[in-house]
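Problem 12. The chain below contains 326 residues. Write out its predicted structure in token notation.
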Amino acid sequence: MARRTKHSIWTRSLLRAVGSLTRRTLKSAANSKPTPSRRTPAARHGEWISGLAMAPTGARRYHLFKPAGVQVQERLPLMVMLHGCGQDAKSFALSTRMNSLATRERFLVLYPEQDRRANPQGCWNWYGTRTQLAYGEAAILMAAVQQVTLLYPVDPNRIAIAGLSAGASMAALMVTRYPGQFKAVAMHSGVPPGAAESTVSALAAMRGRGAHTALAPDTDWPALLVIHGDQDAIVAASNGHAAAKLWAEAAGPHVEKSRQLSRGKRHPMTVTDFKVRGGRTVATLCAIEGLAHAWSGGHARQAYSDAQGPDASRMIWSFAAKQFPK
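Solution.
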């Protein structure tokens, strides 16, 4: 069963203390007026804000992109972006170009960053359920979401989460732990939740040999978007269909309807919608032809990025925006 978010008095006090420290740090940074760097993902279109999130299970750094011109009374959607192995918050922001989209569409983007002491390759430990390590990291990530929601103009009813590879698997795990906190989840080249519980089983799951645990059918799960390349040699493409199927089965009787999409010289893809009675789409699978283990439509000069693929960032935002309350 999924857990609803509950916080002790100690946790709330800790969040307030961290929030106060972050505000003082930001105020000091603002007064110093540093010269913007061309390499900063925010460029001239917004702020690239650094922070630290703490939970009883540990702490992690994060970066927040805030588009320019946000008014005091505004409340914007929040997209949480979890990077893959070998990446950090900055490289993931540059690869996905999600900040440029956030500037045009006006939403905030949160980039938590894995500590290399927690994983030398920078992977989120999504598979460490037997040791509770995965759940501990999920709690820290949830603390980051809550802290940003308290400190910045976030609409708590319009929060979505997405990730690449290990980040995708952790994003899926996050919504199984805190389903009521997110309206949508996007998995790009990841493994479904419940497919692994250790390093050894994670390797098998990545090859498509994981034993998927069913989601609780009595939970209002956020809608799922899956993006996966058919040439992925790191995480088998079968994981994409397994994730979408997992979501659909939890929603009850459903039908699958596929369509082919192709645009210019970009990789073609097959889009399959998993719909329940009444026509509601609970999961969408985008299987991209010719895409390897890389962010589809990402920056050509960044690692784990394929500029020839359909724009995954745009697809994710469009999917999430449809799930947000009007």
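Discussion. The helical segments are 9-32, 89-96, 98-105, 133-151, 166-177, 199-206, 238-251, 312-323. Students who got a different answer should revisit the alignment rule from Section 12.3.
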